[in-house]
Amino acid sequence: MKKTLLLLIVVTLFYSCGEYQKALKNEDVAAKFEMATKMYDAGKYTKAIRLFEQLATSYRGKPQAEKLFYMFSQSYYKTKQYYLAGYQFEAFVSGYPRSEKVQEAAFLGAYSYSKLSPVYSLDQADTVKALEKLQAFIDNYPNSEYIPQANEAVQKLNGKLEKKAYENAKGYNTISDYKSALIAFDNFIADFPGTPFKEDALFYKYDSAYKLAINSIPSKMEERLHVAQTAYANLMKFKSDTKYKEKADEMNARVETDLQKFTK
After folding, report:
1. In the chain, what's the furthest Cα-to-Cα distance?
2. Where does the record place a coiled coil (predicted)?
3. To pair with 246 at 20 to 30 A between CA atoms, which of 107, 154, 192, 232?
4. Do residues 228 and 206 make contact, with C-beta atoms less than 8 angstroms apart?
5. Rounded to whole angstroms, how far apart are CA atoms 262 and 256?
């Protein structure tokens, strides 16, 4: 019984593969479309894509084209070919603005670009592009059922940009480029006022101001010590019991001692 069942499965698979190969070589576009749909419905998206690629030109403008290009776009998405998925979904939205699938296609097109966003430490050009696409979707379809998912994706992408900006600013502090660090931290705090990294940013801004001041030539030291003193005050104002309090207080004591030299 088991051998018979196994044989039946093998024969079925062999027959299916034969039919698929035949459809690939067949000049009959209707037969190709039927096989492509069959592969798509079976979840064999890679095979379906090969047929959709052959059909795309000849089916453009035909009644079945809407279904074909929707399945084509979905097949790229299901196989994680997100550049191609984004492009195809956008083309679908442009070509079939009255389709019942248009909101889903618009969302998945934008969401495909978010899938291309790399880890925060790498170049974030794709992240910025994804944010633009998702924001356009949110603006165009404010009542869509996909808005919660779009907002979640936007929040995640913004988090990468936030982390990138913070680490870049901190990197200047690490390499002792304190002037650049001060500018970068000022920009970071202004761009991300509600950031969870604010306490850290305020401390490392202070640390940068402090180290720049104490290593300055005498003619610039007093002004820079005052800048450090203000940075310390901003940190304490934000969080008086900061995790950096002990170290910050020690640094501030040095700042006050050095400032006394300029009051005599």
Report:
1. 104
2. none
3. 192
4. yes
5. 10
